[in-house]
Amino acid sequence: MRLQAVDLKLGYGDRVVVDGLDLGIEAGTVTAVIGPNGCGKSTLLRAMGRLLKPSGGEVLLDGKRIDRMPSREVARILGVLPQSPSAPEGLTVADLVSRGRHPHQTWYRQWSSDDESAVGAALAMTGLLDLGDRPLDELSGGQRQRAWISMALAQGTDLLLLDEPTTFLDLAHQIEVLELVRRLHGELGRTVVMVLHDLNLAARYADRLVAMRDGRVVAAGPPSEVLTEALLAEVFELDAKIIEDPVAGTPLVVPIATRSHAPR
Amino acid sequence: MINALSVPRAAPPGTVRRIHRRRLLVLGGLLALLASAVTLSLAFGAKPIPPADVWHALIGPTGTENDIIVRSLRIPRTAIGVMAGIALGVAGALMQGHTRNPLADPGLLGVTQGAAFAMVLSIVVLGVGSPYGYIWFGLAGALVASAGVFALGMAGGRGGPTPVTLALAGTAVSAFLYGLTSALVLLDEQAMDTFRFWQLGSIAARGADVAWQVLPFVAVGLIVALVNAPGLNALSLGEDVARALGQNVALTRAVGIAAITLLSGASVAVCGALAFVGLIVPHLTRPLSGPDHRWLLPYSGLAGASALLLADVIGRVVAHPGELEVGVVLALAGAPFFIALVRRRRPVRL
Amino acid sequence: MTSTAPPYLARRRALRIGPASWLLRPRSLAAALVLLGTTVLLMALSMRLGDIPMSVSEVLRAITGDGPDHFVVMQLRLPRALTGAGVGAALALSGAIVQAIARNPLASPDILGVTTGASVTVVAVIVAAGNTWGGVSGVLAEAGVPAAALLGGLIGALTVYLLAWRKGMDGYRLVLVGIGVSAICTNLKFWLLTVGDVNDSSRAMVWISGSLNGRGWEHVIPVAIALAVLLPPALLGTASLGALRFGDDTVTGLGVRMHLTRGLMILAAVLLAATATASAGPIAFVALAAPQIALRLAGVAQPPLVVSALAGAVLTVGADLIARTAFSPVELPVGVVTGVVGAPYLIYLLIRVRRKART
Which of chain A's residues have a Cβ under 8 Å away from the Cβ of B233? Predict the structure, then answer.
């Protein structure tokens, strides 16, 4: 178990979002967290990436309490890409991706050859080599999203937590990002946890799905076990038919109607 | 994209190196600018001294009148100008970076008003009369006020002060101290007389010993500032990303504030209320450096020192045989230049 | 959608009369009422306190009677308190508008060039008139400084606006140009203070700190007119002001005629600050702090105009009461006290709001 949440309690101010949640992430797996808007997916991801301090329970990274580890050490093992991050004006793509090397740099080692090759590889993997010197604010939404993913890749961590990495992307670019995730997993053995909204893509690209509702984990396991008609009704209040994806053989959701408007 | 994926490793584009070269070029240009400003500052004054004599005084002084003027007056004055200018430029860039606010000046954390209050208090209560006496009070006041603002910003919340609370707490403490200072000044004519010159700011008539006294503060402040630069870069991507990159947000803020306090405290104590140098200069250098603080800080320091020295030289020349205070010249010559630049290109947002 | 309103919409009380409807925010309303009550209380207190302390009944008798007390209350204390309330409200209103438009809690009418322009003009007048100024009495002394302040303030604002205009208005450029113009004015002001005689400098210092000393009905009326004329359009603009806080794209998307609204709101802010400054000098800290205090009291995200104005009135009247009585017979300018009184309260609010948000 690489990353583990134990009896986790999370919230903002007085509002409790997640209460008593347990979840384990196995090494070398791709996990997709799914659930309706506001179910606590992003909050959970933030806590597992130590961006949010739990009000109760603990997060364990390789068996050690993550909040007791030096933050820089965590940053060399675990990379987090938060939702809709913002960059200062005029920052170029190469500069942004270079900042992913921050945890590996010290005042006397600001730009090692490791940094250079990691940034180059990250840019290449996201297809941004030609855009390196362009300011981020001049890019399209999809290119910008890829630049941020590239920054997280440059960090060179074994574990990656991605919060909705496919927002702003058209279908082709969504597939590209998810293919990239599969490659990271397949070729480099990385462990990835991501929040995804597209259930069909989640089922196709993840080894494991975690379905959440109201701050609880409703179901967790392989897509074929989790993605059932009963679960969709329970978690999303959605009437749907599940068929087999003719390409990947994974479950494919064909929505019928939301429950509140369903014809009775 | 798919093709790109099959290229696992590639050198970063040559453009990165080109950007790097451009940055070094700008750095060289700013260094040259400062060098000429230093030369002018040594040569010009109430008595113009030919470059050959300046050189003579620097290399092998033989006690001529020109040697004495250069060594006992011009060198300390120039040194103080360079230190104060660098300190204010760097502190201003740090301050604006940490608060992400274009209106933030290095005195925002109460440094300027803290120094002013302590200085006026030393005049009124202890009867301190000379600038030598109240420099230390000014420095102490600046440090105490800034520490107080930081403590207030920390109070009631974990994870360090947010930029907005920090800025507002600083403004509030400054207003509080300004009120006390004004009251003291209005009740005591001698304090008023000193204060009105102090708040205009000047680098004239400060000896070499003053320069040596502030040097350690500025030197330590600069080192702390440069150490802070990568962390501030991470912070400028947002606190979440900074944490994800392993940066301790509260610590980074605290280190930055320590640097700002040392730098602006030292310069304000010695030169008076010149904090607006640090407000304006980073807006001029940001378009040159981009958002990378590792470059923005040195640029701002060099530009700040050049601006301060050049304004001081102009003040000595235009009002000959008297002098116009550096603050007035900076405002009258520097600010229109700044406005013209702001109008010419699209401002770079923080 | 659903037939019954969800609780958070039902909690939004609206006042609906015919086709008109207004949103009522209970907490803002409560804050406004408390601040209004405090203003009245402080004004009543300042009727009573001074060189000749009076009881409430004596004050009431003085208002109706015509003895020497009548003069003290009706010609000295009441107009002074009213000037304080009006000037404080006008400055705070101006500050609230500027902060909303610039989307910056550190912004104040200073960056519009109003107060700094007025300050440098007045200091120039006082210093240029030299020692003789104290001897010039009557009309010139009373009309000269306020007129110079009004003129200087308007010229300052016009300069900033024109310099910032370049194929349209950009909020960020306005702020930067404002910084530049303020730097010029402020340092010129400091320099003039060093050029003049130390007595003149002291006198100028009193004015640039902001003072209500000797303010009469002739000061009340312009400020009252400015408030009466400018408050309604400013309130009409509040809805758009709320939208102005978002990015320019969102604003246009919400159907606000952005440039026109922003221009008119800035004009209102300039006129309010200029009138207030002409009456009492650039009283420090009110325009910046009152909106920040108000938004924390009302529990909203952007400075609420009416609550800000009332907070400004409380701050100014309260500070003047202290300035007038604390070191009697020596009187301090009110602007010296506003920071000393207002800053601790703002800091208290900052800490309290943060505590709440973090538990």
Answer: 99, 102
Task: Print burial letters for C187-213: b (CB count within 10 Å at least 16), e (below 16).
Answer: bbbbbbbbebeeebbbbbbbbbbbbbe
C291: which chain B residues are within 8 Å (Cβ-Cβ)?
Answer: none
User: What structural domains and CATH numbers belong to chain B?
Assistant: 37-57+64-344 (1.10.3470.10)
Q: Do B292 and A110 touch (CB under 8 A)?
A: no
Interface test with B, best of A52, A71, A161 (most B CBs within 10 A): A71
Mutate to test the interface with A, among B240, B249, B293, B349 (most CBs of A within 10 A): B240
C356 touches chain A (CB under 8 A): yes
What distance in Å separates residue A51's CA from the closest CA in chain B?
A: 6
C358 and A14 within 8 Å at the Cβ level: the answer is: no
What are the phi and psi torsion angles at A81 (to 5°)?
-115, 105
Closest CA to C185 of C129, C98, C113: C113
Cβ(C156)–Cβ(C118) under 8 Å? yes
Nearest to C357 by CA among B176, B158, A158, A228: B158
Task: Please check whether residue C355 touches A, CB under 8 A.
Answer: no
Residue B252: name the closest of B313, B142, B163, B336 by CA.
B163
**Count of CB contacts below 8 A, A vs C?**
5
What are the chain A neighbours of B11 within 8 Å (beta carbons)?
A: 116-117, 120
Q: How much of chain A is in helix, strand and coil states, percent to nearest 5?
A: 40, 30, 30
The SS3 call for residue A50 is coil
Number of domains in chain A: 1
Distance in angstroms (rounded) separating the CA atoms of residues A30 and A190: 8
Domain, as residue range, for A155: 3-261
- Say which CATH number the domain at A244 has: 3.40.50.300
> What residues of C are in contact with residue B177 (Cβ under 8 Å)?
339
DSSP tag of A16: E
Give the number of other CB atoms < 10 A from CB of residue B205.
Answer: 11
Q: Name which of B236, B233, B231 is nearest B248 in CA terms.
A: B231
Tokens (6 digits) for B93: 């860039």
Residues B342 and B279: their CA atoms lie apart, in Å, by 14
Contacts of A107 in chain B (CB under 8 A): 226-227, 230
For domain C27-358, give the fold.
ABC transporter involved in vitamin B12 uptake, BtuC (1.10.3470)
* A91 to chain B: closest CA residue: B291
Helices (H) and strands (E) in chain A, counts: 9, 12
Taking only the tens of pLDDT, chain C with its 359 residues reads 344 556 555 556 666 666 655 566 778 888 888 899 898 888 888 877 877 777 777 777 777 777 777 777 777 888 888 999 999 999 999 999 888 887 788 888 888 889 899 989 888 888 877 654 444 444 455 567 888 888 999 999 999 988 988 777 777 788 888 888 988 898 888 888 888 777 778 888 888 888 888 788 888 888 888 898 888 888 877 666 655 554 555 555 554 566 677 788 888 999 999 999 888 888 888 999 999 999 888 887 778 888 999 999 999 999 999 988 887 777 888 888 998 988 888 888 888 766 555 43
